[in-house]
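Build the 3D complex.
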Amino acid sequence: MSVLARSVGNAFRNKVRTAAVVAVLAVAIGLALAMLVANQAVGAKVQELNASVGTVLTVNPAGGQGFEGGGEPLTAGQAATAAAVPNVSAVVGTSTLRLRNAAAAAAQTAQAGQTGQPGPGGQTGQAGPGGQAAPTLTTSLTAAVDAGTLGNRNQQANGTTGSTGTTQQPVRSLPITATGIGAEVDNTGKALNITQGSGLGDYSAASTGALLGTTLAEKNNLTIGSTFTINDQTYTVSGLFDAGTAFGNNAVYVTLPTAQTLAGTPGELSSMIVTVNSMDNVAATKAALQSALGTDKADVTQGQNLQTAVSSLDSVKNISFIAFIAALGTAGLIILLIMVMLVRERRREIGVLKAIGAPNRTIGLQFVLEALVLAALGSAVGAAIASFASGGIASALISSNTTTTTTTGRGFPGGAGGGGGFPGGQGGPFGGASQLLSSVTASASPGVIAGGIAAVFGVAIIGALVPALLTARIRPIEVLRGE
Amino acid sequence: MIEVKNLVRTFKSGDRTIKPVNDVSFELEQGTLASIVGKSGSGKSTLLSLLGALDKPTGGDVVVDGVSLASLPDSKLTEYRRRDIGFVFQQFNLIPNLSAVDNVMLPMEFAGLRKADRLQRARDLLEQVQLDPSKHERRINRLSGGEQQRVAIARALANEPKLILADEPTGNLDEQTGDHIIELLSSLSRNHNTTILVVTHDRVLANKTDRRFRLQQGKLTEEPVRGRAVAATA
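Done.
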């Protein structure tokens, strides 16, 4: 029988005690692994956020009130000014349009004429970056998002459904957001996730190509190469993108010059997305940009809610790491105490082994291996616990740390009018923080679990070394003299 | 050849100093079967512990084949116990959760023998001590006292030691089993040229040894065994 076999056998000498020890160890190890999984998941999310939008500043016209307008539009000249600010690596202009289904718009206009109610109404659900009143254009597209109860209630509250009480009102239709972009990014500066087809090529030139959100294309039975109209002009679907949310996918992207031509506002911009060369320079660049553009002309924002969200995630990451270390330490302490107890209990046996010529290292190794057997059993059960509990623990940690930080961004909250708010919860700096946080998925990947178990084994070895060294101090005559 | 030179072991008990072994000297030729008799508490087990390097003497020395134990570090003393000494304890001191064969294999494992070799040798030894083969794989706590003593003797023989130190090997056994153990030790001494030193209260056993010593108040004297003269070296 080898040392290993003897250690395994010893670990099961007292089955009830072994079960109890393994249960306690499993809880500690499970908690440690769950915390490690949460830590890794949150860390990855923070990295992703920092990589995608962490260095992006958004410039809007000063005093902008979403689609309600307000303020003076931004210009190409201001874009050039922004580009000249130190540490600015890129400036992308956007021009936002609001598209309404031609048939629905005609019916609603006719109804408004009959009832004397002003159109178009139903806009309070829109919250977005546009600092100016976005031009409303007609399209052959039908919105992929139904107005629903909230949309229709809002329409009524705004008086757009008429007040005759007897007249059948037209079905409420939500608008579609069309954005002209100067590069292949969404209106938060994040690279578009094109799932089918291709991009628009040269985004600085007018073209008849367009990128459609997947749900919008599906709603209108459009595929790559299909056509649709905006203000009676025909556009071809070049690609489909997935923004990750239903609202985000109820959108169209065209090149910036195309949007400006459609809106009849050449040279004007709804907003600018400014990318700073590093996270360290964001604050200084924001101040410099604000100064260069003038506080009465433009508002420069960093997506404060996102910053707070990232900060909250950092806090969750720290808490989970500390909890991981604490749980790991607890597991080590449990092993230490158990092994000390076992060494004391088996003093006589250790004395006998020494009397028949067992070297100290063999006896020490036997106890270390016995501790590792217990740790392995605890890790197996603990890993199962972690795989079930890590998601819940991560969610609990995140929710308890972010309840005060998930306020919406600029513009109208959009909850009452149709939910989501522009740009439809794409996760931009204007209102998607809570979605970002909730999108942290803590899945127990084999790599993380393996790393965690390696740490547990490391701690188990350390925990077992002390009692193993104690065995070296036992003199056989002391325990055998008791005969 | 074992030479014991002026061996002294003292203990402190409050203000008193006890000398269970007091200036003990004797020599044993290889292959001798010797016994130490004496009253309880006379220091017999202490002397055995000193000879087996389980304890360190306060004075004097034990020299085994020319090597002084007093000069050896702990690691070498462990090696000495593993290679040259076989212990048979009164309480057997077997590992209770291991089988008979596993217990016998332990010293061989510490000596680095291959598993197949030590398994074969353990089975041979258990057969030599006449343990029923059906009990070789049985756990120690499911064997009788006599069977456990046989396993303990087999374990003591595992690494073919030069010296077997047996503390009351028949103390816990019935007369018939005790007789068998005595025969076994005698045949080991004769057939394997193993030196065997037995601490015993058993007159029958003591009378069957080649040499007999009496330990009284720490002093060792040799007594004549029936039909044999006292060795000159005692």
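The longest strand of chain A covers residues 88-101.
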